[in-house]
Amino acid sequence: MPKQTPSQTVGPYFAYGLTPQPYGREGIADGRVVDRTLSGAALAGHRITVTGRVLDGAKAPVIDAMIEIWQADAQGRYAHPADGREASFHGFGRTGTDGEGAFRIETIKPGPVAGADARPQAPHLNVAVFARGMPNHAYTRVYFSDETAANEADMVLNLVGPDRRNTLVAMLEKTAGGPVYRFDIRLQGEDETVFFDA
Amino acid sequence: MRPNTPYTPRDWDSHPPYIVPDYRSTLLRGPKKPLIPLPHSLSELTGPVFGHDVVGPLDHDLTRNGVVNAEPLGERIIVTGKVMDEAGRPVPHTLVELWQANAAGRYVHRWDQHAAPLDPNFFGGGRTMTDAEGRYRFITIKPGAYPWGNHHNAWRPNHIHFSLFGPSFVTRLVTQMYFPGDPLLAFDPIYQGIPESARERLVSRFSLDVTEPMMALGYEFDIVLRGPRATPIDED
Ligand SMILES: [Fe+2]
């Protein structure tokens, strides 16, 4: 049987290949999982912004990281044959971090998706983090601070020790521009973000 | 494949650890707490599906997709291979993205300060979809080696960066393809960080069959992604 091809870092120079918009090239995605210009069915659900910084073990900003988002629509449907239902949008986003290590995702708050135990999971974004200095990408999830009851019942959050669960919960801040969830990704350290062997 | 079969886990005998001490920037960027195993739900069994609409007609041909007024400089090569899962089944119609330095070892990236010339006719980024048999094919220029700041006299071996999706978010893979016989492989902490028994999977094979007369040398690089967990019949 063939064995898995080893992973390698994206390195420092992935931007013109994977997030090439600043180089005048079209990319396959950007930080707008749901584009501001979309309307109609794709807009069903609550528009949100998720923003935060990627920090290293010395709390320094990681200015050359890439964040990918994969998510369900507001009805909890994934645009994929394994789901089988018609989702209202594609559900994939990708963005680099800026000079402050910050990223920004504009999307729709996802609906609940059935868990491995068939019970509904709390709404969440699936996240992959890539960077120079990361031989493998890291998987995490973004949960939402205003989903207290759903989060308490969530199977995956309950796999995480209570002292670390908060690293997976984005904090809601109501702003004039709409709801903004704050989610920092700490690659290492005391308050290291929970990463999954997904 | 049954749609709700979980995927095999990442094989940590194949992948480098998060922290490779000789690759210095891993020291502060690698998670140190244990990863939490995640039972697969639809969140893991699904992933982005791309159509041919994200691939332009020249996207697979890096000798043409950056041309301003002449052909790019360097040695033309063809890089082709098969994307498959761990049971050897092809992964059809999946997106393959690629980026690399030019023949002089210089990236178009704004931060690359290496004192080697940019080639105005070479961009260095491309993408394609695998066909129904999981095959992909790029035409490009052999990338040059380049220095980096990891340690005194550190040079990256010639390499091409690859990014693949496969059928789900958990089959995602970013890797690098190397070239056979490269003397720098022995000194490269990024390559050497891979478990020894798995390293050579990233070294492409020279192929005279892929080589095109009077046109370009051919290299083959097959890629194995995580697959659906074996059915009881296949389990050993
Ligand atoms: Fe590179």
What is this structure, in a nutshell?
With 198 residues, chain A is mainly beta. Chain A has two helices and ten strands; from the N terminus they run H-E-E-E-E-E-E-H-E-E-E-E. The relative contact order of chain A is 0.20.
What can you see in these coordinates?
The complex is a heterodimer of chains A (198) and B (236). Helix content of chain A is 5%, strand content 29%. By secondary structure, chain A is mainly beta. Chain A has one domain (6-186): Protocatechuate 3,4-Dioxygenase, subunit A (Sandwich), CATH 2.60.130. In chain A, strands 1, 2, 3, 4, 5, 6, 7, 8 and 9 form a 9-stranded mixed beta sheet that branches. The longest helix of chain A has 6 residues, at 148-153. In chain B, the strands form 3 sheets. In chain B, strands 2, 5, 10, 11 and 12 form a 5-stranded mixed beta sheet that branches. The model of chain B is unreliable at 232-236 (pLDDT under 50). Chain B has one domain: Sandwich (Protocatechuate 3,4-Dioxygenase, subunit A), CATH 2.60.130. In chain B, β10 and β11 (216-220) form a beta hairpin. In chain B, 5% of the residues lie in helices and 27% in strands. Chains A and B meet through α1, β5, β6 and β10 of A and β1, α1, β3, β9 and β12 of B. β10 of chain A pairs parallel with β1 of chain B.
- Overall average residue pLDDT of chain B: 95
Largest interface in this structure: A-B, 77 and 83 residues
Per CATH, which architecture of chain A?
Sandwich
Number of strands of chain B: 12
Estimate the helix proportion of chain A, in percent.
Answer: under 10%
CATH architecture of chain B, please?
Answer: Sandwich
Order of helices and strands of chain B: EHEEEEEEEEHHEEE
Annotated CATH topology of chain A: Protocatechuate 3,4-Dioxygenase, subunit A
Tell me, briefly, the overall form of chain B.
Answer: globular
The helix/strand order of chain A is HEEEEEEHEEEE
What is the radius of gyration of chain B? 19 Å
